[in-house]
């Protein structure tokens, strides 16, 4: 479905995508990375808006650059706003369908169906300028699916949606996948992607850090230290206890908290309650930084740099 071979994209001296090689079969994938990680640059390469400085890009077996035939098989929902304020959603989506080769009648039918799918029928004849951000996001998705593409590429599609809108968007995308169509969904929020697919591409600094299912990505981090914060009124006593139990790789005291790094979080979670009871130490809060997407990337970067052995 998507093949990248040694792809690098430079903006002057700034690297947008760094020596990326990738071969994705048809299916649904989440493209995950912090803001500024290179997600949008990668999507722009896949949709032919940018050409690589080095390497080659193939989408559905073809080069995406100035390829009208390929565009008929792609649906793209950009992260940026690109809507005409003084036209209605129906006019805009219908016009884009006509650019795909639809007759005027078929374009109107396809536009109405797509807008109904995203819940915009009641407002589709109003000017886009009167829409909320969430409504504009729905219209962008409608134009991406109206021509029934084989591959749907979405850049931060949940932005601007309220909780109900997010749920409805998620259900729509699940239906899309269930119908056997392909999807590439870019987001900086792990939970958004987890609700849609369990296959991920993780990038940071323009580099591909890992790819695979959630379980496969987590398996890469089996030997990577987990950072855990414990808040207590007796941080020095707690730190001494943890050092005594030889459960930490590193440890520091910060205000009324003990921040530790361990390769054995399961053992710590299991045995910590009894240790605290024996020592009569109370903790008021415990959380793991590695539950966050940023921490996952930090761990993968450390592995990539050889900082974790």
From TrEMBL:
E.C. numbers = 3.6.3.-
The record's section on InterPro entries has: AAA+_ATPase, ABC_transporter-like_ATP-bd, P-loop_NTPase
UniProt keyword list: ATP-binding, Hydrolase, Nucleotide-binding, Transport
Q: Where is the ABC transporter domain?
A: 2-230
Q: Which GO terms describe its molecular function?
A: ATP binding; ATP hydrolysis activity
Entry-linked Pfam families: ABC_tran (PF00005)
Q: Give the protein family.
A: Belongs to the ABC transporter superfamily.
Its protein name is Daunorubicin/doxorubicin resistance ATP-binding protein DrrA
| Species the sequence originates in | Bythopirellula polymerisocia
Gene coding for it: drrA_2
């Amino acid at each position: 479905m998507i093949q990248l071979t040694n792809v690098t994209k430079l903006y002057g001296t700034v690297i947008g995508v760094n020596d990326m090689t990738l071969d994705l079969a048809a299916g649904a994938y989440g493209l995950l990375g912090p803001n500024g990680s290179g997600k949008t640059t990668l999507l722009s390469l896949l949709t032919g808006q940018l050409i690589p400085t080095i390497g080659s890009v193939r989408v559905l077996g073809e080069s995406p650059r100035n390829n009208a035939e390929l565009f008929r098989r792609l649906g793209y929902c950009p992260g940026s706003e690109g809507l005409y304020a003084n036209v209605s959603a129906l006019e805009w989506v219908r016009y884009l369908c006509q650019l795909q080769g639809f007759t005027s009648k078929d374009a109107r039918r396809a536009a109405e169906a797509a807008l109904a799918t995203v819940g915009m029928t009641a407002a589709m004849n109003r000017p886009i300028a009167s829409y909320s951000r969430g409504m504009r996001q729905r219209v962008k998705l409608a134009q991406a699916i109206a021509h029934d593409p084989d591959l749907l590429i979405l850049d931060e599609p949940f932005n601007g949606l309220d909780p109900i809108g997010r749920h409805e968007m998620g259900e729509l995308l699940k239906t899309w996948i269930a119908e056997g169509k392909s999807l590439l969904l870019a987001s900086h929020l792990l939970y958004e992607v987890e609700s849609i697919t369990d296959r991920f591409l993780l990038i940071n600094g323009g580099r591909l850090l890992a790819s695979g299912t959630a379980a496969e990505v987590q398996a890469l981090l089996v030997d990577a230290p987990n950072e855990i914060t414990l808040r207590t009124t007796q941080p020095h006593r707690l730190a001494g206890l943890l050092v005594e139990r030889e459960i930490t790789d590193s440890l520091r005291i910060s205000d009324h908290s003990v921040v530790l790094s361990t390769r054995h979080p399961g053992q710590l979670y299991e045995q910590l309650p009894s240790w605290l009871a024996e020592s009569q130490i109370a903790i008021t809060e415990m959380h793991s930084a590695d539950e966050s997407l940023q921490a996952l990337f930090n761990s993968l970067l450390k592995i990539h740099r050889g900082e974790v052995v």
